Amino acid sequence: MNIPADLKYTKDHEWIRLESDGSVTVGITEFAQGELGDIVYVEIETEGETLDQEEVFGTIEAVKTVSDLFMPISGEILSFNSELEGAPETVNANPYSDGWMVKIKPSDDSQLESLLSADDYMSLVG
To answer: Domain boundaries in the chain?
Structure first.
């Protein structure tokens, strides 16, 4: 299973990459997309909103199920990966690159410290 060491993770199976401009990019892990199966739709209607950590920022729909997407940290949703509207299967093919979900402007950088390291996430999913 691919769990890049340069990312942070949540117990809800999302990954977080800190960008050079201070924003963070968020997506779901390879483990999560594998558990969901073939992804057919990603709905994120919270662009421009400021949400708290653990709040739902969207949903991801697979052939068999629909799952909520949770904010890994508090902040403003700066943008949504609009490429997913026409090609949601990109999340299955490239969860850590082209399959990203949103970019967030963090409102509390200290929350980044509470996220899981790659090793911690590997222990979680076994």
So the answer is: 9-107
Q: Which of 45, 5, 6, 42 has its CA nearest to residue 24? A: 6
9-107 belongs to CATH 2.40.50.100 = yes
Q: SS in 3 state form for the chain?
A: CCCCCCCEECCCCEEEEECCCCCEEEEECHHHHHHHCCEEEEECCCCCCEECCCCEEEEEEECCCEEEEECCCCEEEEEECCHHHHCCCHHHHCCCCCCCCEEEEECCHHHHHHCECHHHHHHHHC
Question: Which residue in this structure is represented by tokens 């199976």?
Answer: 13
How confident is the prediction along the chain (126 residues), in pLDDT tens digits per residue? 899 999 999 999 999 999 999 999 999 999 999 999 999 999 999 999 999 999 999 999 999 899 999 999 999 999 999 999 999 999 999 999 999 999 999 999 999 999 999 999 999 998
